[in-house]
Every structure is written in C-alpha cells, then in structure tokens.
Design goal:
This protein has about 450 residues and is an alpha/beta fold. Helices cover about 40% and strands about 20% of the residues. One of its GO terms (molecular function) is enoyl-CoA hydratase activity.
Length: about 450
C-alpha cells in the first residue's frame, strides 16, 4: 500500500502548512437569535458571533442580560458544530461599560451578592467554553466589561478603545474574576498597578502590556476590532476542530500546574488527537491499496484499488499528486520476493512521468544490521527492502527512507528521535510513525538519507 498526500503550493519548510490546505469561503449567517441585550448569529462553518446590544446603557450588565448570556453559553458548550466564538458590540463606541449601576443601586443588599456570583460564574463559563473565543473591543471596556473580555482566549481592540478595571474608584474590587485573570495575562505587578490606580488605558497601551493580541486603527464605522477579530477567527476555523478543543484544554490546565504536570496534560491530549476523523480529513489523502479492508478506521478522501506491479494502476494513483508515501508489505509471507522493490520501481517511474518530486518510503530497520545477524526467516524480505533502498538511491526523486523498529499498537508519545544513517530505538507507535512519514516529506535535513527512528532509550 502507498499513501499519496497533496502538498501543493506552499513551502517545504513548514510541514503543518503544507499538509493543511485552506478553503476560503463566504460565511453566510444561518440563524439569528435575539435575547435580552444579545444578538447571536450562527454562520456557516461553525463561527458564532455574539453581539452585545443594550444601546441605552452602553451594554451595561444587568440581571436579565446576564441570564441571557448564561443561556447562550450553555447552548454553545453543547453545540458540536460550534468552532469559534467572537464577542463584539453592536453599540458604537462601547464594548461593555461593566455592571448596570442604576440597576445595582435599586437592588437590596441580599440581591447584590447573588448577582455578582452569577456574573462571575458566567465569565468562568465563558473561559471554560471548549472552543476558541475572541473579544472584539471597539470602544469602552470597563469593570465587568473588561472582565468579560478577559474571560476570552484572545482579545482584539481598536487603538482608541478604552479599558480598565476601575472598581476601586467605587471602593470595591473587581468581582467577575478580574483580579485573577488580569494578573495571569499581564503579570501581577502590572495588574496591581492598573487595579490599584483604577487606570484606564487605550488599545495601543493594552497591546504593549500584552492585554490584547492586536490593536488596530479604528475605522469610520467603528468596528475595526470586530473586523480584525473576524479575520483571526477565519484563520482558526481552518484548523482541526478536535485539535483546537484539546489544545485549549492543554493550555488552560497547564497554566494552573507546574511545567512537568503541564507536559503530562499535553501528552495526554496529544494522544487523543492521533487518528481522529477530523485529523485525517485535514489532509487531502489518496490511498492506493490492494485490499480496502486493510485501511481499517482510516478514511482517505480517495481510495484507488490496484496492484503496484501494474504500471497503469500505479500511474492512475499518482496522477495529480504532489507527494508520495510508500508503505509496502508482504502479508506475513517471508519467502523470497521482488514485489516490494519492483513496486517501488514502478512508483518512482510514475512519479517521474507525473513530475512528482518528493517520496518517503518505509522499509525494514534490519538494514541497519549486519546481514548475518538478521534472523534467518527475515533475510529474504530484508534483501528486498535493500533493493527498495537501492531503487530510491538510483532515482532522481527527492527521497527519504524511514527505517522503523518494532511498530507498536500504542498511543503516540511524541518524543521520538530521527537520525540520518543511524538506528535510534527499539519501538515506535504506529501513530508517531505516520507523523514521521509525512513530516519527512517536508524536512530538507533528511532528503537523500535513510533515517532511523524511535524513542530515546
């Protein structure tokens, strides 16, 4: 079997960009929901925009719209189609000026604490959403408004936007998570200065201290930050949805623990991404096989059945491809054979005919051994693997031969090593092997070499 992966149009130096291609489409609004002070728009492709819309109060947070905010977050949390959330304002000149002080003044002492608790929980719920979130700050973001933005993964502001946690002016402290999240984002000393002084800063200053990811010039429509946030959302929407959710979990959980515990989180979540459906669908993959059942759970977009000894079959599979991965086997038949080397020769000839330059080939690590030390039953197959290597060396293609040790049915570890012309370890996860076969197509360091792989011993 060999797999052919489309690698067109991008530099070889960046493996991830090569293997992931973007489809820029017009994202239409599929539904609109209006609640108290909120407009929720669902766009095609999993993008959700949440527009704050209380113009009479500059989007101040009251009991009813906080309750609506909680309801919206609950729906998004359970929405498997949701990919990215952008929070923005439909009120020109204001993102959110914080709690509704007029409403707060009319509350009894018994009502204030539950309201603040509800507000704090809503921002925690926002922070805990499984999808990436972006706050677009066009205008004032004060008190609870800034705390809402701090609950997002990323913040984009206009250069003229004004933001600050100003509660100490009212002889109180931030109650929606501001003391904790601001300190984690800009550092405790800067956070203390801003909170102690109740200072309001503009977008440019916010960018300098790392409070916002981007600060853009405001436009005549007053939505410069929103447009930049939408562009950022488009970049994110192109990536694997499961990977995005797990990357967010790894980052958030890792921030609360020591580095070694954080790395353990990363390893655990990385293992969950390997073999997932959307990971496979992130690439354009054509599989050429004799038996479709051998693909198991893997579902390439294109499957061509054929025989590597049949030049017409091979040529049909390689047409319009930009890279080739060769993984040939003998179905546990260890008798003398030239099937693998003859098949490799046919593939290389077809690659030349179709002007396909890059190829990675998986062959036996027994080639690192002295031939007399190879177990006798494996000598005939090893000899054909050697002939495969010689075919690669004779070709004018850009090749890499990967010599894996024992291929294990275990989760990916990620800490593998790759060495030119030298063995590395005794075992490799089949998932790490798949990554290596792909990555070697785009790594100039290994072109023209046979490489050993494995985990450090």
């Amino acid at each position: 079997m060999f797999l052919l992966k489309a690698l067109s149009g991008v530099k070889h130096a960046n493996c991830r960009n090569i293997l992931t291609f973007s489809l820029k489409i017009e994202r239409n609004i599929s539904s609109v929901e209006k609640l108290c002070g909120l407009n929720v728009e669902r766009h095609t492709g999993g993008l959700i925009t949440l527009g704050l819309n209380r113009p009479q109060t500059k989007n101040a947070l009251g009991r009813e719209n906080v309750e609506s905010f909680v309801q919206v977050l609950d729906k998004i949390k359970d929405d498997k189609e949701a990919r990215v959330l952008v929070i923005h304002s439909l009120v020109k000149g204001a993102f959110c000026v914080g709690a509704d002080l007029k409403e707060r003044a009319a509350m009894s002492e018994e009502e204030v604490a539950p309201f603040v608790t509800k507000l704090r929980k809503s921002i925690t719920d926002l922070h805990d959403l499984p999808i990436p979130t972006i706050a677009a700050i066009d205008g004032y973001a004060l008190g609870g408004g800034l705390e809402m933005a701090l609950g997002c993964d990323m913040r984009v502001s206009s250069s003229t936007a004004k933001m600050g946690l100003v509660e100490t002016k009212l002889a109180i402290i931030p109650g929606g998570g501001g003391t904790q999240r601001l300190a984690r984002i800009v550092g405790p000393a800067i956070a203390k200065e801003l909170i102690f002084a109740a200072r309001i800063i503009d977008g440019n200053e916010a960018f300098k201290i790392g409070l916002v990811n981007h600060a853009v010039e405001q436009n005549s429509e007053g939505d410069g930050a929103y447009l930049k946030a939408m562009a950022l959302a488009e970049e994110i929407l192109d990536q694997g949805p499961i990977a995005l959710r797990l990357a967010k979990l790894a980052i958030n959980k890792g921030l609360d623990v020591d580095i070694n515990s954080g790395l353990a989180f990363e390893q655990a979540y990385y293992a969950q991404t390997v073999g997932t459906k959307d990971r496979i669908e992130g690439y354009e993959v054509t599989a050429f096989v004799r038996d479709k059942a051998k693909l198991g759970a893997v579902s390439p977009q294109n499957i061509i059945q054929g025989d590597v000894l049949n030049k017409d079959d091979v040529n049909k599979a390689i047409e319009n491809q930009d890279g080739v991965i060769i993984v040939l086997g003998t179905r546990n038949d260890l008798s003398p054979t030239t099937v693998m080397s003859d098949g490799t020769k046919n593939i290389l000839e077809s690659m030349k005919k179709n002007n396909v330059k890059r190829v990675t080939c998986c062959i036996s690590s027994f080639l690192f051994w002295e031939r007399e030390k190879v177990p006798k039953p494996y000598i005939p197959v090893t000899e054909d693997h050697d002939r495969m290597l010689q075919e690669l060396k004779k070709s004018d293609r850009e090749w890499v031969a990967v010599l894996p040790p024992h291929i294990a049915e275990e989760p990916a570890r990620g800490n593998f090593e790759i060495k030119n012309e030298a063995p590395v370890g005794r075992v490799i996860s089949k998932y790490d092997l798949a990554d290596i076969l792909v990555d070697c197509l785009t790594n100039e360091d290994h072109i023209g070499h046979y490489v050993g792989i494995g985990y450090p011993q």
